[in-house]
Structure formats: C-alpha cells, structure tokens
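JOB MANIFEST
job_type = single_chain_structure
chain_count = 1
residues = 337
[input]
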Amino acid sequence: MLARLPLLALTACVAAATLFAQNPDRPRRERREEPPVELKNLTFRTETFASAAVGRDIEIGIYLPKDYDVEAQKETKWPLAIWLHGMHEDHMRFHNRGGAAVLDQCVGDGKMPPCVFVSANGGRTSMYVNRKDQKWEDLITVDLLAHLTKNYRVSERREQRAIMGVSMGGMGALRIAFTKPELFGAVGAHSSAVFAEDPEQLPERLKGYAKRLGLDEVFGNPIQKEPWQKANPLCLANSADPKVLNTLRIYFDAGSADNYGFAGGNLLLHEALDQHKVVHTWRLIDGGGHSWGAGFQDQTLPHSFAVVGAMFAGKPAATPPAGDATDAGNGKSGDKK
C-alpha cells in the first residue's frame, strides 16, 4: 500500500473532498441513549461558556485528573489538551464513541500524564475557520483558552499545551498548530481533511454543495485560492518557516481504507514536511478506515496520546513500536528542541 499511495495520492486527495458533499437536507437521526462511561483516572463534566467570537453560548466537555481538587494539588498547574471534533459532531462525540475510555486508560498506563482534557464544540460544518460573523478559530484560540485559564488551573506554557482532533477537527488542529505555534507545543491529528493545494482540482459536486453547507462563507463561491490555502494544512506546511514547525511535536495518521480518501492528502502532507526537513510522526494504518466508525480510537489514539504525553512529561518523543505502520519524518520520531 505504501508503494502505491504516492501514485494515487493526488487522486485520493481530490476524492477526499466528497466528505463535504453529504446531503445537508437529510433528516437528522435522533440521538441514541449512550451507556455511561466509567472512568478510573479522570472525572468528566460538561459546562457552557459565552463566546464573543461566535456570539453564542458554547457547550464543552472537561476531563479533570481524579486528584484535581485534593489539598496537596491546590497549587498545581495542569497540562492542557484541547480536542476538536469532526464534521456534524459535537463536544460529546469523543466521550460517547470510545475516546474517553482510551484517554482514561492511557492516563492509567502512564502514556498520558494526568491533565485537563477539553472536548470543544466547533459547530457542525465550521472547519474551525473565522467567518464574517462567526469566528470559529477564535472560539478555540481566544475564548476557550481564556475561559479555561480563568476557571481552571491549567498551564499557560506552550510545552504544556496540545491541540488534537479528528477529520474536520484534525484539519483545524493542524492549521492552528502550524499558524499559532506560540499557543501549542504539540498537535495530534487523525483522519484529517487534507486536500490538494489547488481548489480548481476539486470535483464540481463539492463546489455545488459549498453554499448549502456554508462553506462559501469561508472559501467563496466558486472556491477562492487565498482562503483555501490559508486553511489547508498542506499549503501551510509548504509556506511556513521549517524552523518554527520544528518547535512542534507533530503526529498525524490516516487509514489506507479511509472511505473519503484522506490517506492520500495526509501522505502529501508527510512528503511536504519531509521535503522541508520538519520532524514529525506519520502513520499509515494498513486497512484502517475513517474516524470513529472504523474503530480508530483503539488503533491510533494511544499513539497520539503518547506523543503529547511525552511532551507534557518533559521527555523525548516516544519511538513507535517495531513493525508499526509508521514513517517518521527524517527517520525520527518527535521533534527537535
């Protein structure tokens, strides 16, 4: 699969755009009752805060270390990780689809130090991009960070902050990390929406759905190169200063059987980072699919949590296990310090 992907990468990258061509008029399914999630090492709560960036109250999910409130920890500043959900999801998706259980296990196993882990709510199709009247990136990088800093004992050091996400959220996490490295020291992205650099290569079906999905407010209709390239991690990897990117711990993965073809776009991102000598960890999951329905939480989350956890603990980046489907930029795992 690795040998064939470079020849198919651009085709798959373009095909990936069909993610946004889902029928927006189909009726929404009723939310099913989810069984309670039992956590041994963390506590979970939801809360709402007012966001000036999007002009509404936003719900978030917050995981706290079990001993967050004990007297001995009252002065502790905890590491912070922010999770960005995918398209048509919300702040509860991570909790109800298996992410919480994996996070709790990784904390128990020591892969991830106890930390404040926040599942954000970025709207159904926002792309985490600032629009005219709703600034979804500022929701994360300004309002949410300010709310957490004010109300929780979280570290403000970039080496103690990470941003992570899946699909649409993976795209947002990569973009925010690449453009605001002063805020976050690590990024972990899964099944990320990464596309061809030239929007002219996108299928007409996507262009037709752009307005109905609200994407024209972000990228224009027809899609314009400037906003497209400002949002696309592949474009940013080719335009950013490699010295700046090398201050990040970068992890991303995708499944070779991703039904949106995202392996191709992520492979292009890996090749771009490699070309610019930006150290990173890229994993192609042989036979892996897209996001929650494909069971990615068990296949991939422990690896990104290990990369983020090593930074939180002040350790060198973890080396992927032998035989794993991993290709680390410049033949290494982790980042340069």
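[summary]
Confidence is low (pLDDT under 50) at residues 19-27, 321-337.
Strands lie at 42-51, 56-65, 80-84, 116-119, 161-166, 186-190, 249-255, 281-285, 326-328.
exit_status = 0
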